[in-house]
């Protein structure tokens, strides 16, 4: 079955461009469009898309609040949110990730990256581009723990190996890369990641990465 995509952007020309790109792919289907966050909520309820391609800055309701309502505890449907931003250091991107977005992508990204990002998010993974994520977290370094504060109690629920895996996830490594780094199988890594998400009450790898930085477990610029 084709991956059902909802396009949310206040610029009709951009929506048209995205539609043309996505409809050229046999496994993607654009099921609707919305020009702001409120319309997006209505369309998600009515159309039940698999992935919402979400702009951040829009009238009436921005992409952050729309993402929060689409992916929150009262969510109505399986939709995952892939945030679109014009600038890779958009100050709203971190808030969108906290709100439950499964990743973010620059609007000027090549068409093949857009298509691949949608497939990855629809498959339950997160778009955690190391370079952009690192620049974002470096930008917010002044608002993150210095590393001198005590770690939160929730981290003590993790095993030593799960902490290792969380640190590598925060660095943007894929399951295959983590497996190679730790000399274990990808299946083992997936199991560890699942345990981390469950124990910390997180939705996906993106939220795990943000948590790792905000908790002080990992610091911007550290290896």
Describe what this molecule looks like in 3D.
The chain is built from 10 helices and 5 strands, in the order βαβαβαβαβαααααα. It has a 5-stranded parallel sheet, sandwiched between helices. It is globular, with a radius of gyration of 17 Å. Helix 2 packs parallel to helix 3 (63-71) and helix 3 runs parallel beside helix 4. With 223 residues, it is α/β, with parallel strands linked by helices. This is Response regulator transcription factor. The modification 4-aspartylphosphate is found at residue 55. Keywords: DNA-binding, Phosphoprotein, Transcription, Transcription regulation. InterPro entries: CheY-like_superfamily (IPR011006), NreC/VraR/RcsB-like_REC (IPR058245), Sig_transdc_resp-reg_C-effctor (IPR016032), Sig_transdc_resp-reg_receiver (IPR001789), Tscrpt_reg_LuxR_C (IPR000792), WalR-like (IPR039420).
Give the fraction of residues assigned to helices.
Answer: 40-55%
Main structural class? alpha/beta
- Average of the residue pLDDT scores: 83
Q: Order of strands across the widest beta sheet? A: 2-1-3-4-5
Distance between the termini: 41 Å
Q: What is the radius of gyration?
A: 17 Å
Q: Total strand count, please? A: 5
Shape: globular
| Strand composition percent | 5-15%
What is the helix/strand order?
EHEHEHEHEHHHHHH
Multimeric status of the protein: single chain
Number of DSSP helical runs: 10
Largest sheet: 5 strands, parallel
Q: Low-confidence parts lasting 5 or more residues at pLDDT below 50?
A: none
Protein name: Response regulator transcription factor
Keywords: DNA-binding, Phosphoprotein, Transcription, Transcription regulation
Domain Response regulatory: 4-122
Pfam families: GerE (PF00196), Response_reg (PF00072)
């Amino acid at each position: 079955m084709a991956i059902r995509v909802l396009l949310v952007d206040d610029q009709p020309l951009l929506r048209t461009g995205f539609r043309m790109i996505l409809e050229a792919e046999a496994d993607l289907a654009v099921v609707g469009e919305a020009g702001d966050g409120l319309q997006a909520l209505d369309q998600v309820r009515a159309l039940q898309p698999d992935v919402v391609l979400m702009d951040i800055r829009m009238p009436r309701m921005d992409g952050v609040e729309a993402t929060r309502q689409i992916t929150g505890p009262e969510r109505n449907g399986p939709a995952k949110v892939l945030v679109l931003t014009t600038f890779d250091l958009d100050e709203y991107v971190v808030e969108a990730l906290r709100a439950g977005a499964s990743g973010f992508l620059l609007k000027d990204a090549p068409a093949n990256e857009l298509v691949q990002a949608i497939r990855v998010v629809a498959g339950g993974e997160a778009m955690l581009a190391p370079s952009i994520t690192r620049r974002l977290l470096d930008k917010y370094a002044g608002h993150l723990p210095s590393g001198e504060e005590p770690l939160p109690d929730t981290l003590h629920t993790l095993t030593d190996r799960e902490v290792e895996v969380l640190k590598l996830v925060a660095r943007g490594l894929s399951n295959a890369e983590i497996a190679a780094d730790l000399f274990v199988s990808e299946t083992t890594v997936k199991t560890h990641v699942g345990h981390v998400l469950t124990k910390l009450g997180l939705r996906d790898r993106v939220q795990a990465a943000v948590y790792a930085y905000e908790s002080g477990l990992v610091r911007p610029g550290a290896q």
